[in-house]
Amino acid sequence: MLKKVYYFVLSLFFPIFMFGNESFIPDPPSLSSENYILIDSNTNRVLAKLNADEKIEPASITKIMTGYIVSDQIQDGFLSLDDQVLISENCWRKKGSRMFIEESSRVSLLDLIKGMVIQSGNDATCAIAEHVAGSEDNFVDLMMRYANRMELTNTSFVNPSGWPHPEHYSSAQDIAKLSMLLIKDFPEHYSLYKEKWFTYNNIRQRNRNALLWQDDSIDGLKTGHTESAGFCLVSSGVREQTRLIAVTLKSNSEKSRLTDNRRLLDYGFRYFRTKKLLNKGQNIKEEQVWGGEVEKVAIAPIGDFYLTLPLRDFKKIESFISLNDYLQAPILEDEIVGKMIFKLGEEEVGSIDLVTVNKVSSLGLFGRAWSNIKLLVYRFLMEEE
């Protein structure tokens, strides 16, 4: 099928210099972490990685999934932050990091979420799981259903807190994807991850993510540590409208996990930027319609479009509109009719579907017949060229 392709330069957004100097960027820094990944949260572009798909123990980083699930259940109306959760003996007896909740007491769901997010309490995590699903085992089934829906292909959960188990694992890539979804889907819940302190039962505990004290641009996410998992950290921050997520796993000390994560974020923020190039519904162009009651229809991106590149490379972006075919009525509103493709030299660096802004009704029988004849002639002339 013949494709009609339009080429134009994004002069509306950035000036183009066809012969600008190439951007040279150093390799990512050397880290003690055995597994890491750095991604942009808006575009999901990977800026650096090492052994990012390897299945390894995630420790308390598991609690990001528990937080995602409880937020989703609240959004769906099944739970409320004001719920008073009865604390079982099972949860009260949990070892490791704790919120110090008491057996047979009732604690608000909001306090339990804070105890899990800020204090990394295994007891709070257990109480959330039991409240959501009735038992930890039922909650684990729910975790895997969410993981499958998110396409976390290198992830297997056995418990909601990240307690060590041979069949409990994830990967840096999956953790980054999960963190990105949490930030996008539940911004109100995510705001808890930047809180530095939480007091419960007269016990004040600090957030274990020490980057929150070192850099005001950092606003989450979660630490993890066991003897077998090593020192792990997922962090995220925003600078100049660019949000990055860094996952560093199996660092060799608490200090090195902070250094590793900070160096990875600094690398990304120094050399890359994310810019919003298109808005959802923004009229890009009016295209010829054949056999319609109107001769043209406006086309627009199906959603907001972001691009992550080295800063100076934005000056060299070129864009193309590629239609699937000539537009023939009837046409539906929001019908996908092609793509806008962005290129840097010969490399395609991004694309987004284009949709029609309005519907177009077709002409009557004779009008459509005459339009089809004109379209056949036009196709022939275009192919001859």
Fold and architecture overview:
This protein is α+β, with helices and mostly antiparallel strands. The protein has two domains: 5-18 and 279-384, Sandwich (Peptidoglycan synthesis regulatory factor (PBP3), Domain 2), CATH 2.60.410.10; 35-275, DD-peptidase/beta-lactamase superfamily (Beta-lactamase, 3-Layer(aba) Sandwich). It has ten helices and 18 strands. Strands 1-15-17-18-13-12-16 form a seven-stranded mixed β-sheet. A five-stranded antiparallel β-sheet has the order 3-2-10-9-8, sandwiched between helices. Strands 4-5 form a two-stranded antiparallel ribbon. Helix 1 (63-75) packs parallel to helix 6 (172-185), helix 3 (109-117) packs across helix 4 and helix 4 (122-133) crosses helix 5 (136-149). The two termini are 16 Å apart.
Which helices and strands occur, and which strands form pairs?
Elements: E1 5-9, E2 35-40, E3 46-50, H1 63-75, E4 84-86, H2 89-92, E5 106-108, H3 109-117, H4 122-133, H5 136-149, H6 172-185, H7 187-190, E6 197-200, E7 203-206, H8 211-214, E8 218-226, E9 230-239, E10 242-251, H9 254-271, E11 272-278, E12 285-290, E13 296-301, E14 305-310, E15 317-323, E16 327-328, E17 336-344, E18 347-356, H10 365-384
Parallel strand pairs: 12-16
Antiparallel strand pairs: 1-15, 2-3, 2-10, 4-5, 6-7, 8-9, 9-10, 11-14, 12-13, 13-18, 15-17, 17-18
Helix pairs in contact: 1-4, 1-6, 3-4, 4-5
